[in-house]
Amino acid sequence: MIRIRNFQPADTDDILAIxxxxxxxxxxxxxxxxxxxxxxxxDVELQKCVGFCLSYVGQDGKSYVRTVAVxxxxxxxxxxxxxxxxxxxxxxxxxxxxxxxxxxxxxxxVNSDVIFRRNGFFPVLEIPDYxxxxxxAKGYSCPVCGKGCHCTCVMYELAMYx
Length: 162
Ligand SMILES: CC(C)(COP(=O)(O)OP(=O)(O)OC[C@H]1O[C@@H](n2cnc3c(N)ncnc32)[C@H](O)[C@@H]1OP(=O)(O)O)[C@@H](O)C(=O)NCCC(=O)NCCS
Known about the structure:
Blueprint: E1 2-6, H1 12-22, H2 30-35, E2 37-43, E3 48-57, E4 63-70, H3 79-93, E5 98-105, H4 113-117, E6 122-127, H5 132-138, E7 141-142, E8 146-147, E9 152-159
Parallel strand pairs: 4-5
Antiparallel strand pairs: 1-2, 2-3, 3-4, 5-9, 6-9, 7-8
């Protein structure tokens, strides 16, 4: 059985371990967890967090789903889709009318395309080298490029009309 809930400090190690494997070593840090709203999925039997989603309102006033990741052992169960849905609920509850999400594209595939489209998002823009400066400044590794990420971001958008 799984449970969707808000982040607790005891989830930190599980989240960082998932992030290192799925998003690249050191891409997500403890500071990111305090700067964002963090929703987690917990496997109740295993008593561990098996997926998470970070969202936030930027200094530009825009709302973002920053990232979502699921433990590979738990993929394909709908966890990623529900995490994005809960992040959208959160951002809407604090007044978001439009939500952006910079999604990772490699080998011409955005592997989270399906879970974002299921939540009403559409691609609006491609940005080459989106993470390059940040990856150098913060020293994280891309799972594809290693140090200095040259991956393209596809910006997805969800607009609410009510
Ligand atoms: C993308 C990710 C969050 C999906 O989590 P999940 O819990 O498996 O997602 P769901 O079960 O809700 O949906 C799975 C759907 O995503 C699609 N999908 C998952 N991985 C995919 C991949 N590598 N390539 C293409 N599509 C993929 C499938 O179409 C699948 O649909 P189906 O179940 O109808 O076959 C997870 O695979 C992950 O952590 N990936 C690495 C990190 C990442 O890319 N994050 C998003 C960018 S920030």
